[in-house]
């Protein structure tokens, strides 16, 4: 497939000069996200995020399988990020690129390793039957900052997902269809999101939040913060590029802390709206619900 | 459930040459087309363009079923695109399923075979819309329809674009695809049928897909000799 066309020398000069004069090409402030929109699907566990021109769709599916022999009490949770030529023509199917590896590792660190999903709650019969939850990240259009968009979409889709309810009676497992019992949400512990910055200038002194595709290509470095709205940091990832002053990173962290609240408010609002849309109301829905009383984590 | 009309959306992805979304009865496909682009050395054809169809399911990675659907779609599109005009080039057609009925996913292993033909219709329509959006030079466009031949108890008339319930009860299913000039492009069938039932299905399909042609030209033998 063709190599990705890089921004030309003119584009580069124009963009960098504009940044020196305090302007971004799309007219955003330096610490402003592009227009962010989240759509939850009609079926449970589908979230479609558009961040400017970047578009990511995440679908969650679950099936019952045998656990790994060394983790008999834990369910299986995997995130699959395969980039197709739809995202950008230079992605070849069935061939991993650097972008894909970085995306999957960052999602892994933010969501899986931070323990956002309680995998122990996915266990049905220790050692023989567990839920295997799979998140498929489909990038439909790549216009920079895939990580933030994909992370938001994955978290929203996982919180939107409902798995079939189950019961175990004298060692026999029954899985109920949605017609028999309302499906139940996953055991969710906290909602981490990613905030990405791009650094520009000789010493990385100019910081841009949410770099788009062109800015990503011309940045001298980038840094991703993964944290939740309580300010608990899952990871700070700065992979390669120019060294950046510690004070700059601290400023970034402060901005990330503010932005995370906006992101989590957006997801909470959309999930609440979706819940209201589905709520048939009345006694029947209360009786049909198989959900336990629990304090929802926001 | 109310029968919903197909719904399309064009050129909404910015990194591709052409893109389209098609949703029909709870099934949604996003198609994108890139091309003509230079083909890789190892797969180029010095006389005509190659068409690279990739079908990606909503959950999991594609398997044998996806490869089979890809080859059906690739063969159909090859007849429509002016491939001889673009030697050593490639047209990349990516089809991403973005919505299915949840029931299809839970029993993913035992995929309902009758769903397959209905999928091909949606996939092919989405691919053609994306080709149009990408301004790829085409000889003509094509439309397809699924025809169900019902069992005795359900009447004798062939049913066009049947619902999932009718499909599961039908005696045979036919996917028929016709080009704008009335030529048969693709015919895939499942189940068993007599020659009369096949003729009736062909007539119904031709009448649905080639409505723009004058009645006289929609005879049973027009265009069967090929595109």
From TrEMBL, chain A:
Gene3D superfamilies: GHMP Kinase, N-terminal domain. One of its GO terms (cellular component) is nucleolus. CDD domains: RNase_PH_RRP45 (cd11368). Pfam families: RNase_PH, RNase_PH_C. One of its GO terms (biological process) is exonucleolytic trimming to generate mature 3'-end of 5.8S rRNA from tricistronic rRNA transcript (SSU-rRNA, 5.8S rRNA, LSU-rRNA). Its main location: cytoplasm. SUPFAM superfamilies: Ribonuclease PH domain 2-like (SSF55666), Ribosomal protein S5 domain 2-like (SSF54211). Keywords: Cytoplasm, Exosome, Nucleus, RNA-binding, rRNA processing. GO terms for molecular function: mRNA 3'-UTR AU-rich region binding. Residues 32-164, 191-256 form the Exoribonuclease phosphorolytic domain. It is found in: Cytoplasm; Nucleus, Nucleolus. Belongs to the RNase PH family. This is Exosome complex component RRP45.
From TrEMBL, chain B:
The keyword Nucleus applies. Coiled coil: none annotated. Residues 1-20 are annotated as: Disordered. One of its GO terms (biological process) is poly(A)-dependent snoRNA 3'-end processing. Pfam families: RNase_PH. One of its GO terms (cellular component) is nucleolus. GO terms for molecular function: RNA binding. It is found in: Nucleus. It comes from the Eukaryota. Keywords: Exosome, Nucleus, rRNA processing. Gene3D superfamilies: GHMP Kinase, N-terminal domain. Residues 11-134 form the Exoribonuclease phosphorolytic domain. Its main location: nucleus. Belongs to the RNase PH family. This is Exoribonuclease phosphorolytic domain-containing protein. It comes from Sodiomyces alkalinus (strain CBS 110278 / VKM F-3762 / F11) (Alkaliphilic filamentous fungus).
